[in-house]
Amino acid sequence: MTDTLSFRVRSSLHYCAYEPATVLFSVRCSETSSQHVVDEVITTSAEAERFDLLVGTEQNPFTRLNFPEPGDLDIQHEARVETHPRLVAKDSIPLRGVDTADAYEFPYLFPSRYVPTDLLRSVSQDLFGHLEGACAIAEAVEDWLFENVTYVSGVSSEGTSGADTLLSRAGVCRDFAHLGITFCRALNVPARYVTAYAYGLEPADFHAAFEVYADGIWYLFDGTRRAPLNGFLRIASGRDASEVPLAMLFGNVIGSDVRVDVSWEGGSETPFEPVTREALRDSGSVLLIA
Amino acid sequence: MTDTLSFRVRSSLHYCAYEPATVLFSVRCSETSSQHVVDEVITTSAEAERFDLLVGTEQNPFTRLNFPEPGDLDIQHEARVETHPRLVAKDSIPLRGVDTADAYEFPYLFPSRYVPTDLLRSVSQDLFGHLEGACAIAEAVEDWLFENVTYVSGVSSEGTSGADTLLSRAGVCRDFAHLGITFCRALNVPARYVTAYAYGLEPADFHAAFEVYADGIWYLFDGTRRAPLNGFLRIASGRDASEVPLAMLFGNVIGSDVRVDVSWEGGSETPFEPVTREALRDSGSVLLIA
Amino acid sequence: MTDTLSFRVRSSLHYCAYEPATVLFSVRCSETSSQHVVDEVITTSAEAERFDLLVGTEQNPFTRLNFPEPGDLDIQHEARVETHPRLVAKDSIPLRGVDTADAYEFPYLFPSRYVPTDLLRSVSQDLFGHLEGACAIAEAVEDWLFENVTYVSGVSSEGTSGADTLLSRAGVCRDFAHLGITFCRALNVPARYVTAYAYGLEPADFHAAFEVYADGIWYLFDGTRRAPLNGFLRIASGRDASEVPLAMLFGNVIGSDVRVDVSWEGGSETPFEPVTREALRDSGSVLLIA
Amino acid sequence: MTDTLSFRVRSSLHYCAYEPATVLFSVRCSETSSQHVVDEVITTSAEAERFDLLVGTEQNPFTRLNFPEPGDLDIQHEARVETHPRLVAKDSIPLRGVDTADAYEFPYLFPSRYVPTDLLRSVSQDLFGHLEGACAIAEAVEDWLFENVTYVSGVSSEGTSGADTLLSRAGVCRDFAHLGITFCRALNVPARYVTAYAYGLEPADFHAAFEVYADGIWYLFDGTRRAPLNGFLRIASGRDASEVPLAMLFGNVIGSDVRVDVSWEGGSETPFEPVTREALRDSGSVLLIA
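ok -> structure tokens follow
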């Protein structure tokens, strides 16, 4: 699993602007210690001023597009990306508490827009309070999500928080992630939201999951279990979806018709073997892709 | 007003821990280009491991205290702080739109926990959509807050958002600031939340206000109008109160009994002249204290 | 306007049950002092046990249908209805306060599910507190709704309250009515929710509006102004939509495909003259259809 | 338990009116088939126009007081009340489904202000969906409340719904009752809210609990288990607390300082034996006090 995996991702977005407008979007892949963007191209179907930015602590790659005049615009993104996901033995991860948390960690312990930790402390304690260590808690949270929340489109919205999903027991990847993060932070485990391309996700779409922080490293968890964990290609990381929107529209502009495609391109002598939570549990490991 | 103003601030917090616990608190003053902390002392009434941190983009000064065992703890903070608040002519501030926003600005345009811009776009547009420029909008927002929201303790809580305050028309400084930020961001004006000591605030307490960003500079606004604008001593800045909590408690620990005192210590040949919004309006200026 | 107006209404509902299930629905017309159901037929496309009920203080006509086994079911409703809408001179309506409210009125002053009067007292007072009398307040509320809320499908949901609509400034007839009721009750004016067939509504659909109570009589108001006021055919009246659902489903059953048709059948020597709010205002009258 | 129990209740409320105002309050005891008000006196410390009303389907006893002028007012209520609580063998209660629900029952199946059944269907089904029969479900709900919700003052407010309490796991009698009702209605069990005096409640206060309806009869459940079930003296019954407020204030008037006292006055040859849930479970019975 320290082999290099190589993927090709393509995505397209469509916008219609009714006046000069600006769109901030996040579809490019992050450059991290475990992920290298070999090449990346963004093309637009019409003239639009483009500006790339790295935003915030996590240096998330955003792109600002200014539509100089009303009209339709297609955005095509294509990239070749190499990743080095790595397994870590769970019992090698030191247990660290909030008494050693540093300046980097604390914001991931604060409540945030979709993560009302203050509302869920008691429930989190009841469900997971007997566990110790970020990864043990996150694994139990992931199991709980998989077993208790139904993956359904259309029941949640832009306003849905982790508390809402705890009540409704239904939602999409974003909602699974927010509830997972809420449980973790409520138990003083730093947790963040990840947007990603995910190889094998059916139907193909942008994906989201959550990570917990233990002794300086982020570990990946996905309560939906709809894609192999080592097939994730990180787009952006933040405290919740409000910090890493797929797209944010300024002015009278409407988006539609998102398309995503992820293919495996080899890059290792052994073929890509999807890593599942079951396999990880059997091996006593967790996955690190940061 | 480019003179140096000198203040002495004192604050005290009291905690009772029922088990070993950790408190993260934010009472120290920021070091900025307009504010210098001449000296600062924190003392605790009992043994507690103390660790100072600078958190996030704005390098906010937090302090983590570990209570090694159950018991009471008093925290005393005292500092001497010099500030250089500066007036800027409103008509000298360039109008900048979201089409030129950069990586630093965008997070201050995103919705956040207490700032549900998506819910208030229509109302914001109705009330302030005819205005142009960050400072003109912020000034009108500040006026609106002062005229339409009643300063009342006890009607709002930790969960109160800008939308809640728009409905209730009542709250404390924190609520005024959140509603002000929501209006501004809904109109694509970058806005942030400021915690501060405020000279002249009656009764003395920690204070909060909001700032808007125009062409690289933050300008201060305070819909409560309960303290002179050039008497603010910045503690921390964030997207909203969830990022700059006065104190965050981890474990079974309870806080109480906050006390604050701010006095003017001279430091200029001319006496301190409190700057009010009316005076600023007459002079066609806004205040910059960042 | 004391002439008899005669209408024919038709509606159809479609359900698919995946198990034996029960549906409670409300599409029949009320029998009131101003409305007479000349004849009414409900037919179902398959065997289903049917039971008619008159529910609550207002004796609303509901129908309970038990689906003995899984399958599809069409419900067809058709009725001939005569109404006697009546104009009342506004200045003939006595001003009555809550100090004379009786057992019948008080529940229409309580907050209810979609009518959070406690949240909107201050705003209601600001906007309409200078007015006196149920009808004067309701008329101003109706004007405000028409001018400040946009009629849009799809932005509100089953959970949307009057407070939500005050923020979003958008919704459907149900949302207009709930916000109108909230304003009125917050000012101590008894108000209720009406479901109705509405002649001339485009596109044809079930409709909703609100009524206020003054000196023993209910008067009709409709902030959407999408149909003539004297073309309403009352289905049911309640404190809000939670008391008079179009349909409530018990068990695994799904509804779809609502169709409504209302035609004028004459019944008066003069042709039907749609009554608009403007005409009422000019005449100094309000409309009574209860 | 078919013996007559006799109690004396006293309560006092204090109001301060800043202008002529009206208060609607609910402290008198209901007259029902199982409860007889032998005598009842309300006295006020100053002149105030008093009007007694029986409100709604359940004929709840309210009192409207008009304060003709600003000032303080004490209201003293005292009554002697006889009750006939009755045990019913659980296995003698027929199982009835929503397919036989009648006009009286349906409103107790609708969602209401503090009872968002639509939000809690999935959780209710998970926790209690395997049970059959109104009393079996209600008993399990009561157990769950007792074991999972902590009785705490000050964490909930006038806006707290059953969904909020499911999240917070803490509240007062009102919150326990609302969550219990939400669970029951979400499983198609008609349920209502009861306000009562409760003998033995410590500290003495107004109390609230919930009832479920089975085959024409209401049975009492109390997830707080803070008072003997056969020591309840019914004040009012409604779909939730919004229909049976202790007091509703119209105008600038403030309430404070509620005091309650309940004493047992004998009235049976055998002394009053408090009925607990444990005793009921052992006997295979439920309690009926309606």
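The first strand of chain B starts at residue 5 and ends at 17.
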